[in-house]
Amino acid sequence: MRIWIKFTKEQPLRFLSHLDLMRLWQRAIRRARLPVVYSQGFNPHPKMSFAAALPVGVTSEAEYLDVHFDKEITDVDINSLQSVLPNGLTIYGWRPVPTGTAALMALVGAHKWQTSLESVSAVQGRIEQLLQDTELWVERQSKKGVKVVNLRPYIYQLKAAAATNSLEMFLASGSAGGAKPREVLALLELQSHSDVRCTETFLKVNDFLQSPLAVFLEEKEVSVNAKEDYYQL
Amino acid sequence: MKKDYQQYFWQHILPRTEKPTRYLGNEVNAIVKDHQQAAMRVVLAFPDLYEIGMSHLGLKILYHIINQEEHWLAERVFMPAPDAEELLREASFPLCSLETVTPLADFDLVGFTLQYELSYATILQMLTLANIPLTAADRGEQAPLVVGGGPGAFNPEPLADFFDFFLLGDAEEALPQILTLLTENKAAPRSEKLRLLAMITGVYVPSLYQEKRSTSGEYLGTVPITEDLPTRVQRAVVANLDQAPYPTEFIVPYGGIVHDRLVLELFRGCTRGCRFCQAGIIYRPVRERKVETLKELARQMVHATGYEEMALSSLSSGDYSAIEQLVRELGIDLAQAGVSLSLPSLRLDSFSSDLAEQVQRVRKSGLTFAPEAGTQRLRDVINKNITEEDLLQAVQEAFAAGWTGVKLYFMLGLPTETDEDLLGIAELARKVVNVYKNSGGRGRLRVTVSTAVFVPKAHTPFQWVGQISQQEMLRRQALLKQALRIPGVHFQYHDAQTSMLEAAIARGGRELVPVISRAADLGCKLDGWDEHFSYEHWEQAFRENGLEVANCAQKDYTEQEPLPWDHLEAGVSKRYLRREYQHALAGEVTGDCREGCLGCGMTLLLPEEEKGVCTRADLD
C-alpha cells in the first residue's frame, strides 16, 4: 500500500541533509517493523521519496514522504511509526495513494515559507518595489557554472505581517522551476536571516495549488478537491 | 547555567559548524539523564572525530554498562573538527558533552579511550578545550578524575602525568567496581580515592608508582611508592563473556559514520598467536558467546535500531567454533528482517566461498585477506600459520563465486625480513593474477596489495625489537613498488613517518611525557589524518626534550633489561614472550592454543570454573 505522510522537521533536526533524513526514515520504518517495498533490479532500494529537498538549516511543518509498503497501513501502524521517530519529527497526517499516481516529487509546485522580521516597516517598501518589477534576475551557481535566472514569475506572494513580525513568502518550486527562500531573502537584503521555516507544500494541479493531503486522487488522475482550501494561479 | 550552555551552543556555535550532525547529540537511543539525580557522572571521550569514534564498539559497550545503572550517567564527547574547534576557542566556549551540552569539567570522571598512539596529542587538546588541567598533579579537588583505557593502557607511561588512573583490561569487569567505589567515596579527597582505586584489579594509578634508576641513570623498573600497593598491576578479565552485558540499543547517528552498521562481537581474544599482534595477547584467552545468545542479541539490535547491516566482529571471526551454524541461522533471521550480514575479518584458512556467499549477498566488490608476509619462511617467523596454498585456494574459490577484486594485506619491515621476502609479495600477487586468468575470470581483475610498516608493540614477542629505519622503509617500499608493476595489481603503502612516530611512542616510557605535552603545544592533533599530521612538529617536540623520533622507534631492548611496561601484567608471562621470540628467530611455529594449551600464563588470571581453553596448570 502506498501512502503519503506529512511530517515536521523541527530543531534540532534542521541540520540534517536530505540523505541523512532519508536514512533516518528508513531506519525508523524498520524499527516500527513495517515492510517497505523494494525496487527490482541489481541494486534494490526501498521505494521511498520526499516531495522536495528541504534546504539544510530550515525547519518545516509540512514535509511529505511518499512510501510504498508491503501491507495495508492503518492508524495503528502510523502511531507505532511515530513512537520510534526522534525528537523533532512529528507525523501530522497521512493518506493512502493509488499506485498509479505520479511521484509526489513530480507533482510539487510551490512552498510557503516564513521568517521573522525585526521591523516590518523597514521591509515593506522593498517588498512593494520587488513585486512591481517584472524581471528579477539572479545568478545561480550550478555544477555546470553560473546560470542567470529570472525569479519574478516564481514569486506568487510576499507578505509582511505586523501582528506577528514575520514575512511570508509564497514561492513556486519543483521541476518547472522555482525560487529558493534564501534567494528571495537576498533580494530583500535579509540574507542574514537564519530562521526560515516551511509552512506548507503545494501540489500543482492544472492552474491550482493545493496541499498533498487535500487533493483528489483517483487512479492516475490528480485533481483539485473543491471542498478544501486551494489557490488559483 | 546548564541551560545556558546548551542554548548558546545551539544558537551561536552549532549552526556555524561545517557538519552540525557531529555535535547534535539527540540521536535515536542516545541517553539523556538528569545530572542532579545522578550519583556518578561519566563522560566518554574519544580523541578523534565523531565519525571515527562512533564506529567504535568499545565506546558503545561502556556507554551501555554505565547507563544501565539508574543512578549513573554516561555521555559522549569527540574531538571537534578544526572548524568547530576554532569556533569554540573564539567564543571561549568549553568542550561539552553531546547529550546535555555539559562542560567536561563538570563531570565526575572523564574517560579517554587509548586506541592508537597517534591520538595522544588529541587527548591533550581535548583537555585544554575543556579547561581541565593537563597534568593530574595540577587538578584540584573539584576537577574530574581522568581515566584512560583500551590497548594503549598496556603501555601508558608516555601519558603517565596526564591521567589520574588507567584501566587495564575488560571494562565489563572493572568499570562497575570503579564506579561503585567512587560513588561510595564521593566525599573523600582525591588522593584517598586514588589509593582506594589502586586496589582494584586492573587499575593503575601512575602517580603512585615511580621510575627507579641506578646512580648512572639506567632505568631499573617502575615501582610502587609505598609497600601496600601491588608491585604489578594485573589486567581485569571478564571470564564469562556470554553473560557479560552487551549493548543492543546502538545509538543511530544521523550523518554517515565510518562503520555505519550494527556490530555483533562473537568472541574476545584470539588463539592464533601471531607474534606481531598485541591484540592477540592482551585480549587472551579466547572467550565466546553462545550461538543462542548471539541470535537473541542480533534480534534485539535490529529491532532497537532499524539498521540495515550487521557485521560480525572478532579478531578472527572465522575461528568462531560454530561459525557455519551461526552464519546460516543468523543469515535466515536477518534476511527476514531485511538486514544484510557482513563478516569483515576472515582468515585465509577459514575462508570458504560458501561462507562468503552467505555473508555478502549484495556486493561482490572486494574481499580482503592478510597473508602478512611474502614467504613461508617469514610467515613462520611471525607465526602466521597460513600457506601459499591457503591463499591461492581461497582466491580461487572467491573468483569462482564471482568476485573480481581482492585486497592483500602485508607488513613491511618485520623482524628478519629480507629483500627476498619482499619479492615474495610480488610473486604471490602474480600467482593470484594467474589463478584468476586460469579460472577463466573475465572482466577486469583488481588485486590491491596494501602494506603497513611493522610497528613493534609492548606485550608481544617482538617487544624487544626496534623498527627499521626510515631510509630502509623507503628503500623497501620502492623495491616493492618496482616489483609490483604487474597488470591488474595496485600497490598502496602507509606513510613512513606516521609509522615511525607510532613505534617511537608505542614502546616508550615516561621520558615521552614532556614530548607529548610539547607536541600538543605546537598544535599537534588528529595525527591519524594526513591533512593534520605534522611530522616536523613532532620531531621538534622530541628534539627539544633531547630525544630523536628515529632513535626511539629503532631502539632495541635486551632481553634482560627491564621494560617500561613490566609492572603491568597482561596475563601472558614475559618468559612465554621471550620463548616465542626465540622460536621466531629460529623460524619455528607455535600451534593454535585451542588445540592444546601452551601455558602462556593466562590461566592465572582466570577463576577455577572459567579456565576455558587455558587448561594447563604448569606454565611453560
Give your account of this protein's structure:
The complex is a heterodimer of chains A (233) and B (620). Chain A is α+β, with helices and mostly antiparallel strands and 233 residues long. Chain A has 5 helices and 14 strands. The longest helix of chain A has 14 residues, at 18-31. Chain B is built from 20 helices and 19 strands. Chain B has helices at 2-13, 50-53, 57-67, 82-90, 120-129, 171-184, 190-197, 279-282, 291-305, 323-336, 353-359, 376-381, 388-400, 419-438, 470-483, 496-506, 513-521, 535-544, 549-554, 574-585; strands at residues 40-46, 72-78, 109-113, 145-149, 165-167, 203-204, 209-213, 219-224, 233-234, 262-265, 267-268, 287-288, 309-313, 340-342, 367-372, 405-412, 446-453, 489-493, 568-569. In chain B, the strands form 6 sheets. Chain B has a 6-stranded mixed β-sheet, with helices on one face. In chain B, strands 15-16-17-18 form a 4-stranded parallel β-sheet. In chain B, helix 14 (419-438) packs parallel to helix 15 (470-483) and helix 17 crosses helix 18 (535-544). The mean pLDDT of chain B is 93. Chain A binds chain B through residues 11-13, 15-17, 19-20, 23-24, 26-31, 33, 35, 38, 43, 57, 84, 86-88, 194, and chain B through 10, 14-15, 20-21, 24-28, 252, 254-256, 302-308, 337-338, 362.
Short description, anyone?
The complex is a heterodimer of chains A (233) and B (620). Chain A is 20% helix and 36% strand.
First-to-last CA distance of chain B: 60 Å
Secondary structure tally: strands of chain A? 14
* Strand order across the largest sheet of chain B: 2-1-3-4-5-6
Number of helices of chain B: 20
Low-pLDDT regions of chain A:
none
Helix content of chain B: 25-40%
How big is the Rg of chain A?
Answer: 19 Å
Described by the principal axes of the CA atoms, the overall outline of chain A is globular
Cα-atom radius of gyration of chain B? 24 Å
Spans of chain B of 5+ residues with little confidence (pLDDT < 50)? none
Largest sheet of chain A: 10 strands, mixed
- C-alpha termini separation of chain A: 33 Å
Order of helices and strands of chain A: EHEEHEHEHEEEEHEEEEE
Specify which chain pair forms the largest interface.
A-B, 26 and 24 residues
Strand-residue proportion of chain B: 5-15%
Label the structural class of chain B: alpha/beta
Query: What is the arithmetic mean of pLDDT of chain A?
Result: 92
Number of strands of chain B: 19
User: Oligomer, anyone?
Assistant: heterodimer
Please describe the biggest sheet of chain B, giving its number of strands, its sense, and whether it closes into a barrel: 6 strands, mixed
| Strand residue percentage of chain A | 35-45%
